[in-house]
What we know:
Layout: E1 7-10, H1 30-40, E2 44-48, H2 62-74, E3 78-83, H3 85-89, H4 97-116, E4 121-126, H5 135-147, H6 149-155, E5 158-163, H7 167-174, E6 182-187, H8 188-194, H9 198-205, E7 209-214, E8 216-217, E9 223-224, H10 233-242, E10 248-251, H11 261-275
Parallel strand pairs: 1-2, 1-10, 2-3, 3-4, 4-5, 5-6, 6-7, 7-10
Antiparallel strand pairs: 8-9
Amino acid sequence: MKNNNRIGFIQGRLSTMVDGKIQAFPWSHWREEFKLANSCGLKLMEWTLDQDRLYENPLLTPHGQSEIIDLCEENQLSIPSLTGDCFMQAPFWKSQGAQSKSLQDDFMAIAKACSLVNIRYIVVPLVDNGRIDNLKQEDNLITFLTDKMHEFKKLGVVITFESDFAPDELKRFIKRLPNEQFGINYDIGNSGALGFNFEDEINAYGQRVLNVHVKDRLLGGTTVPLGEGNAQLQKTIAKFESIGYRGNYILQTARAVDNNHLAILCNYRDMVHTWMGEA
């Protein structure tokens, strides 16, 4: 029997691209995505948050938070996780002084907002501009987050990290942080693009994975339709299921070339069902 309750999509995948970007907050269509998701039986959405116009985002406004809660109820949808592209665009662990403090304040404002709309997992991308380049940056990140750990616990939020670290390096990194409030967001496509072996990754830190992004990418290249890249999608999902992973699979997939984003997302959802052994 198919279980829709563990497969979701990244916000914006049901809207036309914003300024040619594969991923950005869909300012003009964010409300409509709830209804479209419901029409396809999609029950989970992962919110996206950019640094640009951060405090205008509905997640960060009282009126917007009320709208989000109402739209979730109306469309039988939940938002269990948030991808914080804002953290990658303006990483506090690479800043200093007043700028760093301001970005840390942003982080806590986002955590509090997530708590108000029942978002549990905050994904912090340690890739691209957010990549950790040295131990000082890593220490800056870990010191701040561990200092705030009890606040995160009180808010009911858990911090997860998406990283381009090799398996042993990511295992070392995540061991520095307590299990209770910190984990890993595993991106199948990114691992395929980097040429990592999914078995090595899952064996190294699989028990710390709390959320999975599903996409496909070429080796050393860009996002492509599922099954056309270097990611071992079916084998990776089967491996996660075999170790007892019961978290979500979030579609962060290639965009439809004909702009029929709903149809291709529903198709991708069915593919993931099959790979989970729920055909």
